[in-house]
């Protein structure tokens, strides 16, 4: 494969990852609403317990597989993508806790899901804040690269903020009770996935492309 075709292939992969990330919560919500008459679930993961289960698992798997095939510019890119891809697949295979008081096995599965989800988000933040903002040695970033870096950092810190708020949500009982009547976790996930998707669309140069 020529260098030009290889570059286009990588750009297309990044765009696919970004587009899937942005569409994921919308597909779950509107698909559930229009096809099955479902109300908004507490989180994206709770769609596992609805007729949208296969869609939830399928899109998570697709994102995971796309990330596992991502090579980037070096070993650290491949390792980070592999961690994120495996975490996405694990989060799909091990569902979040459902209503009621689950047994010890259910609690363990839910803990694996939560841990995988946090690792997934942390890897995405690392992409945005560390890997995507790099410039080749000796190269001066042009205006487009500087603009893309602003977007990467904004998206990365958005994801970090989501991780911190989710940890606070799980650690402070009063916090959870205070937002019980609001789709709090789903809203955070939308914020994180849109940030994730935008950063990869920018990396794929679907947004802020190079000057022609």
Note down, in words, how this protein is organized.
It is a single chain. With 212 residues, the chain is an all-alpha fold. It has one domain. Helix content is 72%, strand content 0%. The protein is built from 7 helices and no strands. Helix 1 runs antiparallel to helix 7. The protein is globular, with a radius of gyration of 18 Å.
List keywords for this structure.
globular, 72% helix, 7 helices, mainly alpha
Short description:
The chain has 212 residues and is an all-alpha fold.
List the helices and strands and how they pair.
Blueprint: H1 3-36, H2 53-68, H3 75-93, H4 104-131, H5 143-171, H6 173-178, H7 184-203
Helix pairs in contact: 1-2, 1-7, 2-3, 3-4, 4-5, 5-7
Silhouette: globular
Rg computed from alpha carbons, rounded to a whole number of angstroms = 18 Å
**How many distinct folded domains?**
1
Structural class: mainly alpha
Number of strands: 0
Helix segment tally:
7
Average pLDDT confidence is 89
Major sheet details: none
Strand content: under 5%
Poorly predicted sequence stretches spanning 5 or more consecutive residues: 1-8
Which bin fits the share of residues in helices?
over 70%
Report the oligomer.
single chain
Order of helices and strands: HHHHHHH
Q: How far from one another are the termini?
A: 23 Å
């Amino acid at each position: 494969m020529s260098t030009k075709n290889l570059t286009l292939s990588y750009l297309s992969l990044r765009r696919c990852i970004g587009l899937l990330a942005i569409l994921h919560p919308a597909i779950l919500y509107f698909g559930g609403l229009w096809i099955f008459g479902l109300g908004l679930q507490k989180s994206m993961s709770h769609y596992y317990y609805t007729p949208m289960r296969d869609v939830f698992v399928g899109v998570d798997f697709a994102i995971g597989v796309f990330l596992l095939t991502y090579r980037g510019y070096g070993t650290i890119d491949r390792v980070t993508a592999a961690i994120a891809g495996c975490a996405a697949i694990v989060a799909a295979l091990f569902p979040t806790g459902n209503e009621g008081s689950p047994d010890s096995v259910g609690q363990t599965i839910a803990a694996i899901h939560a841990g995988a989800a946090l690792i997934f988000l942390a890897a995405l933040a690392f992409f945005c804040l560390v890997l995507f903002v790099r410039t080749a040695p000796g190269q001066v970033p042009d205006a487009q690269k500087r603009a893309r870096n602003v977007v990467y950092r904004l998206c990365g810190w958005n994801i970090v903020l989501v991780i911190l708020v989710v940890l606070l949500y799980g650690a402070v009982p009063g916090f959870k009770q205070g937002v019980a009547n609001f789709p709090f976790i789903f809203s955070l996930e939308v914020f994180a996935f849109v940030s994730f998707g935008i950063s990869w669309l920018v990396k794929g140069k679907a947004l802020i492309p190079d000057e022609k």
